[in-house]
Write a structure and sequence with these properties.
It is a single chain. Helices cover about 40% and strands about 20% of the residues. Helix 13 links the parallel strand 12 and strand 13. By secondary structure, the protein is an alpha+beta fold. The model has no long low-confidence stretch (mean pLDDT about 95). The chain is elongated, with a radius of gyration of 29 Å. It binds histidyl-adenosine monophosphate. The site of histidyl-adenosine monophosphate has 26 residues, from strand 6, strand 10, strand 11 and helix 12.
Length: about 425
Protein backbone atom coordinates (compact mmCIF):
# COMPACT_ATOMS: atom_id res chain seq x y z
CA UNK A 1 0.00 0.00 0.00
CA UNK A 2 1.35 3.41 -0.99
CA UNK A 3 1.15 6.03 1.75
CA UNK A 4 1.12 9.51 0.22
CA UNK A 5 2.66 12.63 1.78
CA UNK A 6 0.43 15.11 3.61
CA UNK A 7 -1.23 17.93 1.63
CA UNK A 8 0.97 21.03 1.70
CA UNK A 9 4.03 19.06 2.83
CA UNK A 10 6.60 18.14 0.22
CA UNK A 11 9.95 16.48 -0.35
CA UNK A 12 13.02 18.34 -1.47
CA UNK A 13 14.77 15.82 -3.68
CA UNK A 14 18.49 15.69 -4.60
CA UNK A 15 19.10 18.31 -7.28
CA UNK A 16 16.67 20.73 -5.69
CA UNK A 17 18.26 20.14 -2.29
CA UNK A 18 21.67 20.83 -3.85
CA UNK A 19 20.35 24.19 -5.10
CA UNK A 20 19.01 24.92 -1.63
CA UNK A 21 22.37 24.06 -0.08
CA UNK A 22 24.03 26.47 -2.53
CA UNK A 23 21.57 29.21 -1.47
CA UNK A 24 22.27 28.46 2.16
CA UNK A 25 26.02 28.58 1.52
CA UNK A 26 25.77 31.99 -0.14
CA UNK A 27 23.58 33.23 2.72
CA UNK A 28 26.17 32.03 5.24
CA UNK A 29 28.87 34.04 3.46
CA UNK A 30 26.76 37.21 3.55
CA UNK A 31 25.83 36.65 7.23
CA UNK A 32 29.52 36.18 8.08
CA UNK A 33 30.36 39.43 6.26
CA UNK A 34 27.79 41.22 8.43
CA UNK A 35 29.03 39.42 11.57
CA UNK A 36 25.83 37.48 12.30
CA UNK A 37 25.89 34.17 14.18
CA UNK A 38 23.71 31.11 13.71
CA UNK A 39 21.04 30.07 16.19
CA UNK A 40 19.23 26.72 15.94
CA UNK A 41 15.76 26.77 17.43
CA UNK A 42 13.26 24.04 18.27
CA UNK A 43 10.37 23.34 15.91
CA UNK A 44 7.84 22.92 18.73
CA UNK A 45 7.03 25.65 21.27
CA UNK A 46 4.31 26.29 23.82
CA UNK A 47 1.23 27.59 21.99
CA UNK A 48 1.10 30.60 24.31
CA UNK A 49 4.38 31.91 22.85
CA UNK A 50 2.82 32.46 19.43
CA UNK A 51 -0.51 33.70 20.76
CA UNK A 52 1.24 36.40 22.74
CA UNK A 53 3.74 37.47 20.10
CA UNK A 54 2.13 37.07 16.66
CA UNK A 55 -1.25 38.23 18.04
CA UNK A 56 -4.58 36.60 18.89
CA UNK A 57 -6.45 38.18 15.97
CA UNK A 58 -3.99 37.40 13.18
CA UNK A 59 -4.76 34.81 10.49
CA UNK A 60 -1.79 32.76 11.68
CA UNK A 61 -3.03 32.40 15.26
CA UNK A 62 -6.76 32.27 14.46
CA UNK A 63 -6.63 29.79 11.59
CA UNK A 64 -3.24 28.47 10.63
CA UNK A 65 -1.42 26.97 13.59
CA UNK A 66 -0.72 23.26 13.99
CA UNK A 67 -1.61 22.98 17.65
CA UNK A 68 -1.89 19.79 19.68
CA UNK A 69 -2.10 18.75 23.29
CA UNK A 70 0.91 16.87 24.57
CA UNK A 71 0.39 13.79 26.74
CA UNK A 72 0.91 15.87 29.88
CA UNK A 73 -1.83 18.30 28.85
CA UNK A 74 0.47 21.12 27.63
CA UNK A 75 -0.72 22.87 24.46
CA UNK A 76 2.12 22.81 21.90
CA UNK A 77 2.40 24.30 18.40
CA UNK A 78 4.63 23.65 15.38
CA UNK A 79 6.32 27.03 14.91
CA UNK A 80 4.64 29.16 12.22
CA UNK A 81 7.67 31.52 12.15
CA UNK A 82 11.06 32.04 13.79
CA UNK A 83 10.96 35.43 15.51
CA UNK A 84 8.93 34.34 18.54
CA UNK A 85 11.25 31.38 19.15
CA UNK A 86 14.35 33.57 18.74
CA UNK A 87 12.98 36.02 21.31
CA UNK A 88 12.07 33.17 23.68
CA UNK A 89 15.59 31.74 23.36
CA UNK A 90 17.16 35.16 23.81
CA UNK A 91 15.21 35.73 27.03
CA UNK A 92 15.61 32.17 28.34
CA UNK A 93 19.37 32.09 27.83
CA UNK A 94 19.74 35.71 29.05
CA UNK A 95 21.98 36.50 26.07
CA UNK A 96 21.57 40.19 26.93
CA UNK A 97 23.74 39.64 30.01
CA UNK A 98 26.76 38.57 28.00
CA UNK A 99 26.41 40.90 25.00
CA UNK A 100 24.66 44.22 24.45
CA UNK A 101 23.89 43.45 20.81
CA UNK A 102 23.05 39.98 19.43
CA UNK A 103 22.97 39.40 15.66
CA UNK A 104 21.46 36.03 14.86
CA UNK A 105 20.46 34.08 11.76
CA UNK A 106 18.56 30.83 11.26
CA UNK A 107 17.43 28.39 8.59
CA UNK A 108 14.56 26.01 9.03
CA UNK A 109 11.05 24.76 8.39
CA UNK A 110 7.94 26.68 9.52
CA UNK A 111 4.35 25.41 9.56
CA UNK A 112 1.14 27.23 8.65
CA UNK A 113 -2.11 25.53 7.76
CA UNK A 114 -2.84 27.77 4.77
CA UNK A 115 -4.62 26.73 1.60
CA UNK A 116 -1.80 25.19 -0.45
CA UNK A 117 -1.09 26.62 -3.90
CA UNK A 118 1.94 27.52 -6.02
CA UNK A 119 4.50 29.05 -3.63
CA UNK A 120 2.28 28.46 -0.60
CA UNK A 121 2.87 25.38 1.49
CA UNK A 122 1.96 24.14 4.92
CA UNK A 123 5.57 23.32 5.65
CA UNK A 124 7.92 25.88 4.15
CA UNK A 125 11.48 26.99 4.87
CA UNK A 126 12.74 30.36 5.97
CA UNK A 127 16.12 32.05 6.09
CA UNK A 128 15.79 34.60 8.88
CA UNK A 129 17.78 37.14 10.87
CA UNK A 130 17.12 38.91 14.17
CA UNK A 131 19.09 41.73 15.79
CA UNK A 132 18.58 42.35 19.52
CA UNK A 133 19.78 45.37 21.46
CA UNK A 134 19.69 48.13 18.82
CA UNK A 135 16.84 50.66 18.77
CA UNK A 136 18.56 53.15 16.42
CA UNK A 137 17.63 53.77 12.79
CA UNK A 138 21.10 52.65 11.66
CA UNK A 139 20.22 49.10 12.76
CA UNK A 140 17.09 49.07 10.55
CA UNK A 141 19.17 50.43 7.67
CA UNK A 142 21.85 47.78 8.19
CA UNK A 143 19.29 44.96 8.31
CA UNK A 144 17.69 46.27 5.11
CA UNK A 145 21.10 46.59 3.44
CA UNK A 146 21.82 43.00 4.45
CA UNK A 147 18.51 42.01 2.86
CA UNK A 148 19.45 43.68 -0.45
CA UNK A 149 22.91 42.08 -0.36
CA UNK A 150 21.45 38.64 0.32
CA UNK A 151 19.09 38.97 -2.64
CA UNK A 152 22.01 40.13 -4.79
CA UNK A 153 24.13 37.17 -3.64
CA UNK A 154 21.29 34.86 -4.73
CA UNK A 155 21.20 36.57 -8.14
CA UNK A 156 17.85 38.29 -7.52
CA UNK A 157 18.13 41.93 -8.49
CA UNK A 158 14.62 42.68 -9.73
CA UNK A 159 12.73 42.37 -6.43
CA UNK A 160 10.97 45.40 -4.97
CA UNK A 161 11.49 46.26 -1.31
CA UNK A 162 8.54 48.14 0.22
CA UNK A 163 8.84 49.97 3.54
CA UNK A 164 6.50 51.68 5.93
CA UNK A 165 6.54 52.79 9.53
CA UNK A 166 3.82 51.44 11.79
CA UNK A 167 4.39 54.02 14.53
CA UNK A 168 4.92 53.21 18.18
CA UNK A 169 3.08 52.82 21.48
CA UNK A 170 2.68 56.61 21.63
CA UNK A 171 1.25 57.33 18.20
CA UNK A 172 -0.44 54.05 17.24
CA UNK A 173 -3.57 54.53 19.46
CA UNK A 174 -4.68 57.67 17.59
CA UNK A 175 -4.16 55.91 14.26
CA UNK A 176 -6.11 52.87 15.45
CA UNK A 177 -8.99 55.11 16.48
CA UNK A 178 -8.99 56.75 13.03
CA UNK A 179 -8.99 53.34 11.35
CA UNK A 180 -11.91 52.12 13.48
CA UNK A 181 -13.88 55.22 12.57
CA UNK A 182 -13.12 54.73 8.88
CA UNK A 183 -13.97 51.01 9.09
CA UNK A 184 -17.34 51.73 10.71
CA UNK A 185 -18.22 53.99 7.81
CA UNK A 186 -17.49 51.18 5.35
CA UNK A 187 -18.80 48.29 7.43
CA UNK A 188 -21.01 46.84 4.69
CA UNK A 189 -18.07 46.59 2.26
CA UNK A 190 -15.82 44.78 4.74
CA UNK A 191 -15.47 41.00 4.85
CA UNK A 192 -16.68 39.03 7.83
CA UNK A 193 -13.17 38.70 9.38
CA UNK A 194 -12.55 42.44 9.12
CA UNK A 195 -15.91 43.33 10.66
CA UNK A 196 -15.15 41.04 13.57
CA UNK A 197 -11.58 42.37 13.96
CA UNK A 198 -12.49 46.05 13.58
CA UNK A 199 -12.55 46.94 17.25
CA UNK A 200 -9.92 44.53 18.51
CA UNK A 201 -7.24 44.92 15.83
CA UNK A 202 -8.16 47.41 13.08
CA UNK A 203 -4.68 47.33 11.50
CA UNK A 204 -5.52 43.86 10.20
CA UNK A 205 -8.03 45.51 7.81
CA UNK A 206 -5.09 46.84 5.79
CA UNK A 207 -3.60 43.36 5.43
CA UNK A 208 -6.81 41.57 4.42
CA UNK A 209 -6.60 39.55 1.19
CA UNK A 210 -10.33 39.83 0.42
CA UNK A 211 -10.85 41.72 -2.88
CA UNK A 212 -13.57 44.03 -1.50
CA UNK A 213 -11.35 45.01 1.45
CA UNK A 214 -8.38 45.56 -0.87
CA UNK A 215 -10.51 47.84 -3.08
CA UNK A 216 -11.41 49.96 -0.06
CA UNK A 217 -7.85 50.39 1.23
CA UNK A 218 -6.84 53.51 -0.68
CA UNK A 219 -9.47 55.54 1.14
CA UNK A 220 -8.12 54.53 4.59
CA UNK A 221 -6.27 57.02 6.77
CA UNK A 222 -2.48 56.84 6.42
CA UNK A 223 -0.24 55.97 9.35
CA UNK A 224 2.23 58.65 8.24
CA UNK A 225 -0.30 61.34 9.16
CA UNK A 226 -0.27 60.06 12.75
CA UNK A 227 3.47 59.43 13.34
CA UNK A 228 4.86 61.11 16.46
CA UNK A 229 7.99 63.24 16.02
CA UNK A 230 10.28 60.42 17.18
CA UNK A 231 8.76 57.92 14.70
CA UNK A 232 8.93 60.44 11.86
CA UNK A 233 12.58 61.18 12.62
CA UNK A 234 13.40 57.46 12.91
CA UNK A 235 11.78 56.65 9.57
CA UNK A 236 13.44 59.62 7.86
CA UNK A 237 16.84 58.53 9.15
CA UNK A 238 16.38 54.93 7.96
CA UNK A 239 15.65 56.19 4.45
CA UNK A 240 18.53 58.67 4.58
CA UNK A 241 21.02 55.98 5.61
CA UNK A 242 19.77 53.64 2.91
CA UNK A 243 20.15 56.36 0.30
CA UNK A 244 23.71 56.92 1.54
CA UNK A 245 24.58 53.35 0.51
CA UNK A 246 22.70 53.71 -2.78
CA UNK A 247 19.43 51.95 -1.85
CA UNK A 248 15.96 53.36 -2.39
CA UNK A 249 13.13 51.18 -1.10
CA UNK A 250 9.60 51.91 -2.22
CA UNK A 251 7.43 53.60 0.43
CA UNK A 252 4.10 51.82 0.89
CA UNK A 253 1.81 53.75 3.28
CA UNK A 254 -0.67 50.89 3.86
CA UNK A 255 1.72 48.02 4.40
CA UNK A 256 1.16 46.58 7.91
CA UNK A 257 2.44 42.94 7.71
CA UNK A 258 0.52 39.89 8.92
CA UNK A 259 1.96 39.71 12.43
CA UNK A 260 1.11 42.03 15.32
CA UNK A 261 4.50 42.52 16.94
CA UNK A 262 5.86 45.18 14.60
CA UNK A 263 6.44 48.82 15.47
CA UNK A 264 8.08 51.55 13.42
CA UNK A 265 9.95 50.09 10.42
CA UNK A 266 8.17 47.29 8.54
CA UNK A 267 9.10 45.98 5.11
CA UNK A 268 8.30 43.41 2.48
CA UNK A 269 10.12 42.06 -0.55
CA UNK A 270 7.87 41.54 -3.55
CA UNK A 271 8.81 39.87 -6.81
CA UNK A 272 6.89 39.42 -10.02
CA UNK A 273 6.92 35.96 -11.50
CA UNK A 274 5.59 34.30 -8.36
CA UNK A 275 1.90 34.64 -9.14
CA UNK A 276 -0.44 35.43 -6.26
CA UNK A 277 2.17 34.65 -3.62
CA UNK A 278 4.41 37.55 -4.54
CA UNK A 279 6.05 38.14 -1.14
CA UNK A 280 9.53 36.62 -1.01
CA UNK A 281 10.29 38.04 2.39
CA UNK A 282 9.28 40.44 5.10
CA UNK A 283 10.34 41.85 8.40
CA UNK A 284 10.62 44.87 10.61
CA UNK A 285 11.20 46.23 14.05
CA UNK A 286 9.55 44.74 17.16
CA UNK A 287 10.71 46.82 20.11
CA UNK A 288 8.17 45.76 22.78
CA UNK A 289 8.35 42.03 22.11
CA UNK A 290 11.32 40.99 24.27
CA UNK A 291 9.74 42.74 27.23
CA UNK A 292 6.28 41.28 26.51
CA UNK A 293 7.82 37.82 26.55
CA UNK A 294 9.36 38.30 30.00
CA UNK A 295 12.74 39.81 29.10
CA UNK A 296 14.23 43.26 29.63
CA UNK A 297 13.21 46.23 27.48
CA UNK A 298 15.50 45.31 24.57
CA UNK A 299 14.72 46.35 21.00
CA UNK A 300 14.59 43.93 18.05
CA UNK A 301 14.60 44.06 14.26
CA UNK A 302 14.79 41.31 11.63
CA UNK A 303 13.33 39.63 8.57
CA UNK A 304 12.74 36.26 6.96
CA UNK A 305 12.85 35.07 3.34
CA UNK A 306 10.85 32.10 2.04
CA UNK A 307 13.19 29.52 0.50
CA UNK A 308 10.61 27.90 -1.84
CA UNK A 309 9.75 31.32 -3.27
CA UNK A 310 13.44 32.22 -3.68
CA UNK A 311 13.99 28.90 -5.46
CA UNK A 312 10.99 29.59 -7.74
CA UNK A 313 12.49 32.95 -8.69
CA UNK A 314 15.82 31.36 -9.48
CA UNK A 315 14.28 28.67 -11.67
CA UNK A 316 15.25 25.06 -12.17
CA UNK A 317 18.72 25.19 -13.63
CA UNK A 318 21.47 24.42 -13.12
CA UNK A 319 21.05 21.09 -11.36
CA UNK A 320 24.10 20.45 -9.34
CA UNK A 321 24.11 16.91 -7.95
CA UNK A 322 27.76 16.02 -7.63
CA UNK A 323 29.12 12.93 -9.42
CA UNK A 324 31.52 10.54 -7.74
CA UNK A 325 35.22 10.95 -8.52
CA UNK A 326 35.77 7.17 -8.49
CA UNK A 327 33.44 4.25 -8.97
CA UNK A 328 34.84 1.07 -7.49
CA UNK A 329 33.65 -2.07 -9.31
CA UNK A 330 34.34 -5.35 -7.53
CA UNK A 331 33.81 -8.52 -9.57
CA UNK A 332 33.12 -11.51 -7.35
CA UNK A 333 32.79 -12.00 -3.62
CA UNK A 334 36.49 -12.08 -2.81
CA UNK A 335 36.98 -8.72 -4.48
CA UNK A 336 34.02 -7.20 -2.65
CA UNK A 337 35.67 -7.14 0.77
CA UNK A 338 38.94 -5.75 -0.60
CA UNK A 339 37.04 -3.10 -2.60
CA UNK A 340 35.21 -2.02 0.57
CA UNK A 341 38.58 -1.55 2.32
CA UNK A 342 39.97 0.54 -0.54
CA UNK A 343 36.81 2.65 -0.85
CA UNK A 344 36.84 3.33 2.87
CA UNK A 345 40.52 4.37 2.82
CA UNK A 346 39.98 6.85 -0.04
CA UNK A 347 36.67 8.13 1.38
CA UNK A 348 38.36 8.87 4.70
CA UNK A 349 40.91 10.91 2.74
CA UNK A 350 38.09 12.97 1.24
CA UNK A 351 37.24 11.47 -2.18
CA UNK A 352 33.61 11.03 -3.28
CA UNK A 353 33.36 7.32 -4.09
CA UNK A 354 30.57 5.05 -5.24
CA UNK A 355 31.08 1.41 -4.29
CA UNK A 356 29.07 -0.96 -6.47
CA UNK A 357 27.76 -4.40 -5.48
CA UNK A 358 29.80 -7.38 -6.72
CA UNK A 359 27.16 -9.72 -8.10
CA UNK A 360 26.91 -8.29 -11.63
CA UNK A 361 28.81 -8.78 -14.85
CA UNK A 362 31.50 -6.27 -15.77
CA UNK A 363 29.36 -5.14 -18.70
CA UNK A 364 26.35 -4.21 -16.59
CA UNK A 365 28.68 -2.69 -13.96
CA UNK A 366 30.15 -0.43 -16.66
CA UNK A 367 26.71 0.61 -17.87
CA UNK A 368 25.83 1.70 -14.37
CA UNK A 369 29.16 3.47 -13.92
CA UNK A 370 28.47 5.45 -17.10
CA UNK A 371 25.06 6.44 -15.75
CA UNK A 372 26.52 7.61 -12.45
CA UNK A 373 28.60 10.11 -14.39
CA UNK A 374 31.86 9.51 -12.51
CA UNK A 375 35.33 10.24 -13.86
CA UNK A 376 37.08 6.89 -13.33
CA UNK A 377 35.96 3.30 -12.81
CA UNK A 378 38.38 1.26 -10.71
CA UNK A 379 37.95 -2.42 -11.52
CA UNK A 380 38.83 -5.19 -9.09
CA UNK A 381 38.39 -8.81 -10.27
CA UNK A 382 40.36 -12.03 -9.81
CA UNK A 383 43.15 -10.94 -12.21
CA UNK A 384 43.54 -7.64 -10.39
CA UNK A 385 43.59 -9.36 -7.00
CA UNK A 386 46.33 -11.68 -8.25
CA UNK A 387 48.35 -8.72 -9.54
CA UNK A 388 47.71 -6.62 -6.42
CA UNK A 389 46.58 -3.77 -8.68
CA UNK A 390 43.40 -2.14 -9.96
CA UNK A 391 42.48 -1.70 -13.62
CA UNK A 392 41.30 1.76 -14.51
CA UNK A 393 38.78 2.94 -17.06
CA UNK A 394 38.44 6.61 -17.91
CA UNK A 395 34.67 7.06 -18.16
CA UNK A 396 34.91 10.46 -19.81
CA UNK A 397 37.52 9.55 -22.43
CA UNK A 398 35.91 6.08 -22.71
CA UNK A 399 39.19 4.18 -22.71
CA UNK A 400 41.09 1.75 -20.48
CA UNK A 401 44.35 2.88 -18.96
CA UNK A 402 47.47 0.95 -19.86
CA UNK A 403 48.75 1.05 -16.28
CA UNK A 404 47.22 -0.32 -13.12
CA UNK A 405 47.13 1.32 -9.70
CA UNK A 406 48.51 -0.67 -6.78
CA UNK A 407 45.97 -1.71 -4.16
CA UNK A 408 48.00 -0.14 -1.37
CA UNK A 409 47.94 3.30 -3.00
CA UNK A 410 46.79 6.13 -0.74
CA UNK A 411 44.42 8.68 -2.31
CA UNK A 412 47.20 11.10 -3.27
CA UNK A 413 49.07 8.34 -5.15
CA UNK A 414 45.86 7.18 -6.84
CA UNK A 415 45.13 10.69 -8.09
CA UNK A 416 48.76 11.34 -9.05
CA UNK A 417 48.98 8.09 -11.04
CA UNK A 418 45.80 8.89 -12.93
CA UNK A 419 47.02 12.42 -13.65
CA UNK A 420 50.30 11.03 -14.94
CA UNK A 421 48.59 8.56 -17.25
CA UNK A 422 46.24 11.28 -18.42
CA UNK A 423 49.23 13.45 -19.24
CA UNK A 424 51.16 10.82 -21.12
CA UNK A 425 48.13 9.87 -23.17
CA UNK A 426 47.49 13.54 -23.91
CA UNK A 427 51.12 13.86 -25.01
CA UNK A 428 50.69 10.76 -27.12
CA UNK A 429 47.74 12.37 -28.84
CA UNK A 430 49.47 15.71 -29.27
P1 LIG B 1 6.31 36.45 7.15
O1 LIG B 1 6.08 37.60 6.23
O2 LIG B 1 5.13 35.85 7.79
O3 LIG B 1 7.32 36.96 8.26
O4 LIG B 1 7.10 35.30 6.38
C1 LIG B 1 8.29 35.57 5.69
C2 LIG B 1 8.33 34.85 4.36
O5 LIG B 1 8.09 33.45 4.53
C3 LIG B 1 7.24 35.27 3.38
O6 LIG B 1 7.58 36.46 2.73
C4 LIG B 1 7.22 34.09 2.43
O7 LIG B 1 8.27 34.18 1.48
C5 LIG B 1 7.50 32.94 3.35
N1 LIG B 1 6.22 32.26 3.65
C6 LIG B 1 5.31 32.58 4.58
N2 LIG B 1 4.26 31.73 4.56
C7 LIG B 1 4.53 30.83 3.58
C8 LIG B 1 3.85 29.67 3.06
N3 LIG B 1 2.69 29.26 3.56
N4 LIG B 1 4.43 28.98 2.05
C9 LIG B 1 5.62 29.38 1.55
N5 LIG B 1 6.31 30.44 1.99
C10 LIG B 1 5.78 31.17 3.00
C11 LIG B 1 7.76 36.24 9.30
O8 LIG B 1 7.65 35.03 9.38
C12 LIG B 1 8.55 37.03 10.32
N6 LIG B 1 8.98 36.12 11.40
C13 LIG B 1 9.73 37.74 9.68
C14 LIG B 1 10.53 38.52 10.67
C15 LIG B 1 11.70 38.19 11.22
N7 LIG B 1 10.17 39.69 11.19
C16 LIG B 1 11.09 40.08 12.05
N8 LIG B 1 12.03 39.17 12.09
Amino acid sequence: MKIPSVKGFRDVLPGESARWAALEGRARDVFAAYNFHEIRLPIVERTELFRRSIGETTDIVEKEMYTFTDRDGTSLTLRPEGTASAVRAYVESALYQSETVSKLFYFGPMFRRERPQRGRLRQFYQIGVEVFGRDDAAADAEVLTLLYDLLHAFGIDGAEVQVNSLGCRDCRPAYRAALVEWGRKHLSALCEDCRRRLDQNPLRLLDCKNPSCIALRDSAPRMSEYWCDACRAHHGRVLELLRAVGLEPHQQPYMVRGLDYYCRTAFEVLASGLGAQNAVGGGGRYDGLVRDLGGPDVAGVGFALGVERLAMLLGESPTVTASPEFIVLPIGERAEAVAATLARRWRLSGARIELEPSGKSLKSQMRRADKLGGRYALILGDDELAADALSVRDLEARCDYPRAVRLEAPLAELRATLDEIKLTSAERHA
